[in-house]
Structure to design on (1240 residues):
């Protein structure tokens, strides 16, 4: 699970959990064609319904995971999925498929009049031929479209829909609900003259039978305009191939096709509406064909087309300015428009998807401010604020000092949340009212694995936290007004994974009743439903109904048996779901659930409460979608069934009595229901299909004819809100005005909920435990074992007074007065005089590393002590130190720039008259490692130590780790030094590999070393004309080494296997040759080996001294090879006894070395004398990066020098030079090779 702060409203699911605002201004949801769900040969048919709720719900929330419609959160919470935006990705992910029935019939179905068998989800269901009743999948959320075309009918023939009233055998046992449906339909078939009918009209979208997706928008309240966009989405191509735009101006009685107005060849993909002006419509074309948008300012009557140079993935409309829009493109670029899409301007690049927000009036400085998260790398992001039309670096703000975790920015109401991971553990920060960021204080040992921001309503935060020992449950925590200090509200709340990988929390906020929530909690491996009336302060189980639907007594005693509800909701705002409530109908809750010891998915029934959860009644013994009509004055129920229906049920008395009405003459597969925005509507449209090949059927239902009159004052009755008799809830007694159950009248659009509130005296139940306190079994709040109450005086670090907690705090939004208020309320006291305690020093990024020359921000926190009288001294460890008079002066952090690489001891000291405290931080200042070079001898002596050194470029990059592999050893050697000594115990060719790790960068080099027990080595010099043709590159040295070896073999007759030659880097050109003994002659005879090598040396040196070794470099360039008079390194004898000649030669080398040094010092005064001491920068760079070869690893003829491998003392005085990583001189670079010359 991706780690990060996520936001979800207080309903049963979190769509995209960190999104706090919906991304388009109209409700967009997916109603799946329930009659098109079988097999993989089905194409999708969806209905994306748009209303004016100001929310774009984007994707369907498929609670079943099978493409069926999940049910809407009737609380009206924003559950937007902004990534759907203007792309079809979301549709594709949730589209159901329409079966290729022609192929199925021709290959598998008999041609006679027999049953057809279709398999779905592992079960076999039989669909009857025309003239008989068929069954379909029993999943109430999974409707199957029947095929009515005869197998032998001609292609393209469309038989009329036929629904018989007879029954026949099936391959499975028919559920009771389906048998009851059969009986009811038989009865209604014979008595349709007497049945109750609704005023309705049907309109078919002719020509759109192949279209499998649709988007619907009702222009707004008091408007008769409905727009509908139907599309054919090709799942193989992944794009829309056809589209039609329909418009109705009479509440859906008739529709006009507008394809000619938008362009006959134009393919439309999405429809948007301004949330501030419903007359403004925006249509997006399919980007696979063209990237354009069409704009209308007259409710879709006429359109203007505008080209786009980018693909729109999602839109975010300004909550107040009707023409201001943010558009997120496919290339992570954010664009803005202040002309309702007519012109676009680039705002910022590398913007994280779904992480951009409009400013909020009263909190941000200007309305055109944008909050956004920009991506820096896979592990780093930045929170920046930008001006709408002028997002330059000079105008950017960085409210959070440092990097944040990717996809963690959440801006909701007055709060801003970010996450920063340190040492593998996340730290969550919150800013209230755009103030400074402060770490969120959860109980000390919460150790969250995951955190979701559930709600930020009414000046407090509700967060769901999955702790280290939880897997499928979350704990609910609530904060005080600042969003900083959190206490536990409910443990082990159930969660589930949504179809898009989003976490859905089983928590539901009841609409219309402030402070009322329902939650499903796991207790002893049983899921039970709990209810609270005071924002989580107290929870209890639900009392089950006393009788079932048939009046039979239900024996269910708390706490062993209770009512449990399914709390999953749908993104469809006009289709009721598992649970539904409305702001305009307080106290009425409709939900599906079960009775027993725990919540089950079997034997699900529908329940209703009219008194806010105190008593419940069973209304159906199977699942229904229940919608609110006339602001809750009536309820409409449509049965969840895979079968076509023609009836709905209507209740005027809060679900006590349900009347059955027919809404169409022919049964219809219902895909969705759309009403005029707001529950006050009396007009409703049902969308469906007669068969899987039919057009969209739009049935408009007018309920006005069934109401007798307008409601008058005598039709209402007062209702007292209570919790099992307790009327004081959230500190007040509330009395609502409700419609009498016997009244059958229209409340109308002017109706509003009337509430009379009377404050109550405060009691202990109006207070929850304060931060650091836990509730005991007796209800008292006592300090947790980890909490020191004195630490709550930490506000003294910035103020003169603090609140001394009593262990309790008043529930947010609780309006009680008097009573025990004074006893439980924290008391403000003067800060005590005390020594500083709890000093913290961290970097703003929470890291212990920083890059050279970058601004490092240090944050200093003091838990206890009088901040106004406590001075803070910060020593940066580089000779610079600053003292601040008080803590408040460094709230924004202390910035410092380091000028050298190294490890710095940074200290902060807090001091006042009563004492002091010091804290240390060791900060690594690093530089980017560009290249490495492994310096190693070309030939090494067996069983003798060899020095191997790594040269870094730049030479100082900070803390470095070296990882070595020698020969065939699989286990590496890890060192902190760049030099190692190694002994090769076997003769032959050995490969040495080294990797250098500096920060996040790892580089590697490899050298091949020839290992022998005995050998001789001598230096070679060349005629001066060779230097004129020496480019000093590895390939040239390799080729010349081969030519020199061949010339020496020809001149001396030495076996080529006994001779090795390598040209060393640099100028003047120098080479070295190695003589190896003949194994056949000297094997096991050490005394002969020395003699044999001496003879070979004399032979080769004689040829060299006689100028017999020559080669032609190019026509006209003849090069002579000489023997150098002196070796540049001591001769090493591998025998036990040291000969006198070897000692003499060793002494000679020392003398000559001194002479070379003197010559080097005065070489500019001696014309014509060239001693190798320096090389060109680009040549050395070539040597470091050249491919591995024998010549590359040969040491150079330069004096051996010590490499800088430790940090030198840093300058204490400020350096006025330009700060950069330490690099060699740009023009001259000393050789990085360490020569090792051996003579045996």
């Amino acid at each position: 699970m991706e780690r990060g702060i996520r936001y979800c409203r207080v309903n049963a699911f979190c769509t995209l959990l960190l999104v706090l605002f919906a991304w388009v201004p109209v409700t967009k949801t997916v109603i799946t064609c329930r009659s098109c769900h079988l097999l993989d040969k089905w194409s999708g048919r969806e209905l994306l319904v748009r209303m004016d709720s100001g929310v774009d719900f984007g994707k369907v929330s498929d609670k079943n995971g099978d493409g069926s419609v999940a049910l809407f959160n009737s609380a009206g919470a924003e559950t937007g999925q902004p990534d759907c935006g203007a792309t079809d990705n979301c549709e594709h992910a949730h589209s159901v498929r329409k079966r290729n029935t022609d192929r199925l019939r021709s290959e598998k179905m008999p041609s006679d009049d027999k049953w057809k068998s279709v398999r779905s989800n592992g079960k076999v269901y039989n669909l009857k031929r025309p003239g008989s009743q068929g069954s379909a999948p029993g999943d109430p959320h999974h409707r199957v479209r029947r095929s009515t075309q005869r197998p032998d009918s001609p292609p393209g023939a469309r038989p009329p829909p036929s629904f018989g009233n007879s029954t026949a055998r099936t391959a499975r046992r028919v559920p009771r609900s389906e048998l009851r449906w059969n009986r009811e339909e038989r009865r209604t078939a014979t008595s349709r003259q007497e049945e109750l009918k609704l005023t309705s009209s049907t309109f078919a979208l002719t020509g759109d039978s192949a279209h499998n997706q649709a988007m619907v928008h009702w222009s707004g309240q008091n408007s008769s305009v409905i727009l509908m966009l139907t599309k054919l989405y090709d799942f193989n191509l992944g794009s829309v191939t056809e589209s039609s735009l329909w418009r109705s101006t009479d509440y859906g009685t008739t529709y006009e096709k507008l394809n000619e107005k938008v362009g006959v060849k134009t393919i439309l993909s999405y429809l948007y509406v301004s949330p501030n002006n419903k007359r403004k419509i925006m249509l997006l074309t399919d980007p696979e064909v063209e990237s354009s948008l069409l704009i209308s300012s007259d409710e879709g009557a006429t359109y203007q087309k505008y080209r786009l140079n980018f693909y729109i993935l999602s839109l975010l409309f300004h909550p107040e300015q009707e023409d201001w829009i943010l558009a997120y493109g496919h290339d992570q670029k954010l664009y803005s428009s202040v002309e309702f899409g007519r012109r676009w301007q680039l705002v910022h690049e590398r913007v994280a998807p779904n992480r951009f927000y409009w400013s909020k009036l009263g909190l941000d400085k200007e309305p055109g401010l944008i909050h956004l998260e920009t991506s820096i790398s896979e592990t780093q992001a930045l929170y920046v604020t930008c001006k709408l039309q002028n997002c330059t670096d000079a105008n950017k703000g960085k409210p959070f000092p440092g990097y944040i975790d990717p996809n963690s920015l959440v801006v909701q109401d007055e709060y801003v949340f970010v996450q920063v991971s340190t040492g593998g553990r996340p730290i969550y920060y919150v800013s209230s009212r755009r103030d400074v960021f402060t770490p969120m204080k959860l109980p000390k040992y919460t150790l969250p694995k995951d955190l979701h921001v559930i709600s930020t309503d009414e000046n407090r935060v509700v967060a769901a936290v999955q702790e280290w020992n939880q897997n499928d449950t979350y704990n609910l925590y609530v904060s005080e007004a600042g969003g900083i200090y959190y206490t536990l509200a409910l443990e082990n709340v159930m969660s589930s994974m949504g179809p898009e990988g989003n976490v859905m929390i089983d928590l539901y906020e009841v609409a219309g009743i402030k402070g009322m929530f329902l939650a499903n909690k796991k207790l002893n491996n049983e899921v039970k439903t709990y209810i609270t009336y005071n924002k989580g302060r107290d929870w209890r189980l639900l009392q089950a109904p006393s009788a079932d639907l048939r009046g039979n007594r239900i024996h269910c005693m708390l706490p062993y048996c209770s009512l449990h509800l399914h709390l999953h909701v749908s993104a469809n705002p006009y289709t009721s779901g598992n649970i539904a409530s409305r702001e305009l109908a307080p106290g009425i809750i409709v939900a599906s659930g079960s009775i027993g010891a725990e919540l089950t998915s079997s034997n699900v029934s529908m329940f209703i409460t009219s008194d806010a959860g105190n008593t419940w009644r069973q209304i159906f013994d199977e699942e229904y979608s229940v919608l609110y009509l006339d602001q809750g004055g009536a309820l409409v129920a449509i049965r969840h069934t895979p079968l076509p229906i023609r009836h709905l049920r209507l209740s005027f008395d809060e679900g006590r009595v349900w009347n059955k009405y027919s809404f169409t003459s022919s049964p219809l597969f219902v895909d969705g229901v759309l009403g005029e925005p707001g529950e006050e509507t009396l007009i409703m449209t049902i969308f469906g299909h007669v068969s899987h090949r039919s057009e969209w059927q739009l049935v408009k239902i007018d309920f006005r004819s069934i109401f007798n009159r307008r409601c008058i004052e005598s039709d209402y009755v007062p209702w007292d809100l209570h919790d099992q008799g307790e009327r004081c809830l959230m500190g007040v007694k509330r009395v609502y005005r409700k419609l009498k159950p016997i009244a059958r009248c229209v409340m109308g659009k002017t109706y509003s909920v009337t509430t009379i509130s009377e404050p109550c005296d405060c009691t202990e139940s109006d207070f929850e435990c304060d931060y650091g306190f836990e509730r005991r079994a007796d209800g008292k709040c006592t300090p947790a074992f980890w909490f020191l109450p004195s630490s709550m005086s930490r506000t003294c670090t910035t103020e003169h007074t603090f609140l001394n907690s009593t262990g309790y705090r008043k529930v947010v939004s609780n309006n009680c007065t008097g009573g025990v208020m004074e006893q439980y309320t924290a008391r403000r006291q003067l800060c005590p005089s005390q020594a500083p305690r709890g000093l913290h020093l961290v970097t703003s990024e929470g890291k212990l590393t920083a890059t050279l020359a970058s601004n490092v921000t240090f944050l200093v926190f003091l838990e206890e002590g009088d901040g106004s009288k406590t001075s803070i001294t910060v020593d940066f460890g580089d000779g610079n130190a600053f003292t601040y008079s008080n803590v408040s002066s460094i709230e924004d952090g202390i910035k410092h720039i380091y000028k050298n690489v190294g490890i710095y001891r940074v200290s902060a000291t807090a001091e006042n008259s009563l004492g002091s405290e010091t804290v240390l931080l060791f900060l690594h200042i690093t530089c980017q490692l560009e290249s490495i070079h492994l310096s190693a001898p070309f030939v090494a002596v067996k069983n003798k130590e060899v020095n191997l050194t790594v040269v870094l470029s730049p030479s100082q990059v900070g803390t470095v780790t070296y990882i070595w592999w020698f020969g065939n050893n699989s286990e590496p050697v890890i060192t902190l030094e760049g030099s190692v000594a190694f002994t090769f115990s076997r003769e032959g060719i050995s490969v040495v590999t080294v990797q250098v790790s500096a920060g996040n960068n790892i580089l590697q080099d490899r050298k091949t070393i020839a290992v022998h027990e005995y050998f001789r080595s001598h230096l070679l010099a060349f005629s001066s004309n060779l230097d004129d043709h020496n480019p000093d590159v590895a390939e040239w040295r390799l080729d010349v080494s081969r030519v020199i070896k061949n010339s020496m073999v020809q001149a001396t007759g030495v076996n080529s296997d006994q001779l090795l030659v390598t040209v060393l880097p640099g100028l003047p050109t120098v080479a070295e040759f190695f003589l190896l003994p003949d194994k056949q002659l000297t094997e096991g005879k050490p005394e002969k080996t020395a003699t044999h090598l001496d003879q070979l040396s004399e032979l080769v040196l004689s040829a060299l001294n006689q100028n017999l070794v020559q080669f032609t470099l190019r026509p006209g360039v003849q090069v002579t090879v000489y023997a150098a008079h002196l070796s540049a390194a001591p001769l090493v004898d591998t025998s036990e006894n040291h000969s006198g000649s070897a000692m003499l030669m060793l002494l000679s080398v020392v003398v000559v070395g001194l002479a070379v040094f003197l010559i080097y010092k005065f070489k500019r005064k001696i014309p014509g004398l060239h001693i190798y001491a320096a090389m060109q920068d680009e040549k050395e760079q070539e040597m470091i990066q050249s491919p591995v070869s024998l010549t590359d690893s040969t040491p150079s003829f330069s004096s051996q020098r010590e490499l800088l491998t430790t940090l030198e003392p840093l300058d204490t005085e400020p350096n006025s030079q330009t700060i950069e990583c330490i690099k060699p001189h740009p023009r001259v670079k000393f050789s990085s090779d360490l020569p090792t010359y051996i003579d045996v």
In short: DSSP finds ten helices and 82 strands in the chain.
